[in-house]
Amino acid sequence: MTRLLLVCFLSLVISRSVHAQSFTMEQISSYPFPTELIASPTNQAVAWAANEKGIRNIYLAQGPDFSAKRLTAFGNDDGQEISSMQFSPDGKWLVFVQGGEHGSNWDYNIGINPSQELMMPKVQIWKISLPAGKPELVGEGDEPVISPDNQAITFIKNRQVWSAALAGGSPQQLFEVKGSAHSLQWSPDGKSLAFVANRTTHSLIGVFTQGGSQIKWISPSFSRDVSPRWSPEGNRLAFVRLPGGKGEELPLLVQRHSPWEIWVADVQSGVGSKRWKSPETLRGSVPTTHGGFNLHWAADNKIVYLSYEDGWPHLYAMDAEVGPSRQLTKGNFMVEHIQLSPDGKSLVFSANTGNLAEDIDRRHIGMVSILDGSMSMVTAGEGIEAIPVVLSDLGTLAYLSADHQRPLMPTLLDLKTRTPKLIGKELLPSDFPSAFLVKPKQVVFTSSDGMEIHGQLFEKEGGPAKKPAVLFVHGGPQRQMLLGWHYGDYYSNTYAINQYLAEMGFVVLAVNFRLGIGYGYEFHKAPRTYWQGAEEYLDVKAAGEYLAGLAQVDSARIGIYGGSYGGYLTALALGKDSDLFKVGVDIHGVHNLSTRLEMPEGYEKAPDFEKAVRTAWFSSPLAYLDSWKSPVLFIHGDDDRNVQVSQTTDLVRRFEEKKMPFEYLMIPDDSHHWMKFTNLVLVNQATVDFLKKHLKP
User: Fold this and answer.
1) What is the DSSP-derived secondary structure letter of residue 529?
2) Contact at 8 Å (CB) between 194 and 172?
């Protein structure tokens, strides 16, 4: 008996030591996340913004050594992001925006105050004289562009176009138009400025010319014209034309083609003509992956764009005047983060393809020649490489890279030697727990209707024979979780949470459900999803059942968490399948979809309007409160500009009325993306603590 007790005691000690927490939530969340990576047009230099525990600053790396030099000295965890970074054409200035929340769906250029200052911070434009100047405030505004002659910063303020001398001087309004101005584009000679004027029912492309007395409207119509792009000679504009106004009330529960066209116009006359029309198929619809149309006017009179028409988001090129389009990238992969090289002859991009079978769940860097269509992948392996830019020598790439242990860092690659060089390694805190992070495993399983679903499984070796499990559901839903640290800040954070849960002793599965990117059009734009039937939930349930079927998982201890769209699917899981999902954390989720369908004004309405409203209701978590038995933690920031906080306040009210138990965490004045680091750590810790309390790893 004594020996048996000793053996049991030793087994317990060993089990606990295997799953003793080796790092804190603050440590795993403390990586310096890089954003806004840009290359100088004239010098061998790159710059980026780094978020170091909520303190955001700009770094410059200049050749030949490319050591990281901090250009700004912002010192507070105040939630003020840095965006719209750009070098001047001569490489002597760097301009950026501080403030706002540019990952928002609305009010992105309105100040945000997660630090609860007495006065709301403004969205402001700053400039830095390189290489050693100090930041100088230009003024309030957003969306700056620097003129080709290096003389002016032009920007948007109060929906109108303003300008300030780059060398100094007070900002002045440049002109005034009806509606909201945006998408500023200087002509190559710096004499004219193209812009979009949004008039609500339609939008127009306008051109302002310095010294002129009138705005010239380019091929005006009743359509929505967007994305103006100058020809290299500056005498023509390419743009995208979308339908304007409001069409017939067609059935709501039927997928249909979303048309778009590419037009080319002569600037002097303002006369334009249709150059290309999208195929009238579902795949030919308006692209919704990163960069949208990705319209560029390249060298040799070529116009390039992105289309899903062959079933994957790929690049195409055509002569600006005549002839058919040519497909530049081909294969069962997607391209995103697309950049035109400085000489206009090639495109660089991120793609989920490579020489390894698992690369569909990674990102690597590719290049394609616009002239002859030759394509090559320039990075490979088990890492993550994304968001590339070409340096001024045309022989060096900069991009952001990571692997399953090392978070994202700026990286240089010589295209001849293919030797990568990390920049800013010293910015990673010395106590960052890279050595303790597990390598996620690609898993593939089938949903109940036959859809193939990918996921990443996180599990620490050792521990008890039966472990609790957690399913993570991403948001978007146009996202893809990867086999390593993510290139997006929100999902880099959830990757950190998944690693922390694995370290706690959970088996963790991140599921890439239908509606996500990376697996082709039919997966990305699957029918009968979201308010039209929520069939993507089949994939979430299948992921939970996959976990329950693993030999090492205790099927009675499976939890779920997710944010935004992932919060919606978490709430749906808890409402529909509390027997499978025993506990959940619903972070700024959507809970009532029927409110998306308001009774139209006037006599006409969609023939299936009542059916659509009913379908939307039964696609909503609110419809399943009577079967919701699992404990839940609700989390929401009340300055959320992606999901209205009312989606959670209304659900909480229902829980209170039904006397259903719940826990909650309200974050005053912060947004969807936890702009303040201390709030991010608070939310992360609350999430894992709640799961731990109920699932007991």
Assistant:
1) -
2) no
